[in-house]
Amino acid sequence: MATLTFYLRASSRIGCHAGTLCFRIIHARRVLSHSTNIRLYCREWDSTSRRIVLSDSSEERITYLNKAEQQQQNIEQSFAHIIHNLEESGRYRVEDIMGRYRLRLDSHWLYHFTGQQSHTLIASGRERTARAYRTAARGLIAFNAGRDLPLKHLNSCLIKDFENDMKHKGKTLNTISFYMRNLRAIYNKAIACKRIADTGQNPFSDVYTGVQKTRKRSLTMDQLKTLNDLDLSLGSGTTAGAKEGSSVRDQEIFRGLDAARRLFLFCFHARGMSFVDLAYLRKENIQGKRIRYYRKKTGGLIELKITPVMQEIIHSFSLQTRDSLYIFPILVSPHKPLRLQYESGLRLQNNRLKRLARLAGIHSAVSTHVSRHSWASAAKKENLPVIPVRSMPRR
Asked: Can you supply a Gene Ontology BP term from the record (predicted)?
């Protein structure tokens, strides 16, 4: 059984100076020591009972000693809890005890607490939320001159200054809201985990945490036709295409652009299918002449007819996906997490779409979302139902 012992390390300075309260952990004949931030004079420490003594001092000093006494008790309770859990799990070393204690200390700081929460979220399959937490925490730490800060320092003044700094740098309201909402979630979790006390105050009450409606971007039918007719064939000799004699790298680039265009047009013809649904679309989702799949965002069941254009695009990727469960070559590695592959594919697709837009002379921004909004706009003009043929909640 491990034991915890407190002792006072006297100051090495000449004169009457406060020493440092330390403790040592002993287990299996191994000893580890650790210093606290408590400073005591010799008269304020009883070496027999190993307790803090409330000496005849000023009121300010007595207040400090009361807080120090509470901190000593908190340390004892923390170690009792840690040792109890390790005893139940079996054999352990003194380094395991101290490691868990240091982890508890670190968890009172924004960076380390956010890291702990991120690991928990990832374990439950919520990678995007974990990444959002880390991004928000890094943003606030960068504002704090790159220094980590205690969770208890998250107050309304700091948060408001952070918001003003983002406004000064030209961040949009939705970007500001992203940081504030995630920092608020971290702050609330810290209270729930008792890393900080609930003072009843809300540091985020005076900053923007809403969602500003953005203008939906879509392409006209003429722009879609221009994109569709853009010549990207090898050796075409056109300005847009890969000219004869071009390097292997150039040829690869234009083959990638052609693949991006086909994926974009498939999403459009598939009644505005989102890119995440496209990426996860499996061959088993094709049933005869129809595609049936559950939307990642809503869980609703979508059923739609495969048009000749869609079938041609599917066939164009058949060699690349011959040994794959998926229809399109986005989730291609069996050794990498699917979520990371999707996000990498999304970034690559959006970068390629930007280049395609420039080559086609389209001056508005083009991204994966544009195919969805373009189909919705076209359907509205033609008085077509915007909801796919069949949409029902997942059972």
From this structure: DNA integration
Question: Tokens 């309260």 label which residue?
Answer: 21
Q: CA–CA separation, 138 vs 148, rounded Å?
A: 9
Please state, in angstroms and rounded to a whole number, the distance separating the CA atoms of residues 150 and 106. Answer: 9
**Which sequence spans correspond to the domains of the chain?**
3-106, 110-192, 221-392
Among 27-31, 44-48, 235-239, 369-373, which stretch is predicted with the lowest mean pLDDT? Answer: 235-239
pLDDT at 235 over 70: no
> Which pLDDT tens digit goes with each residue over 81-110?
889 888 888 889 999 898 888 767 767 889
- Residue 391 predicted with pLDDT over 80: no
The 3-state secondary structure of the chain, one letter per residue: CCEEEEEEECCCCCCCCCEEEEEEEEECCEEEEEEEEEEECHHHEECCCCEECCCCCCHHHHHHHHHHHHHHHHHHHHHHHHHHHHHHHCCCCHHHHHHHHHHHHHCCEHHHHHHHHHHHHHHCCCHHHHHHHHHHHHHHHHHCCCCCCEHHHCCHHHHHHHHHHHHHCCCCHHHHHHHHHHHHHHHHHHHHCCCCCCCCCCCCCCCCCCCCCCCCCCCCHHHHHHHHHCCCCECCCCCCCECCCCCHHHHHHHHHHHHHHHHHHHHHHCCCCCHHHHHCCEHHHEECCEEEEECCCCCCEEEEECCHHHHHHHHHCCCCCCCCCECCCCCCCCCCCHHHHHHHHHHHHHHHHHHHHHHCCCCCCCCHHHHHHHHHHHHHHCCCCCCCCEEECCC
User: Under CATH, which number does the domain 221-392 receive?
Assistant: 1.10.443.10
* pLDDT of 164: 96
- Asked if residues 113 and 153 have their Cβ atoms less than 8 Å apart, the reply is no
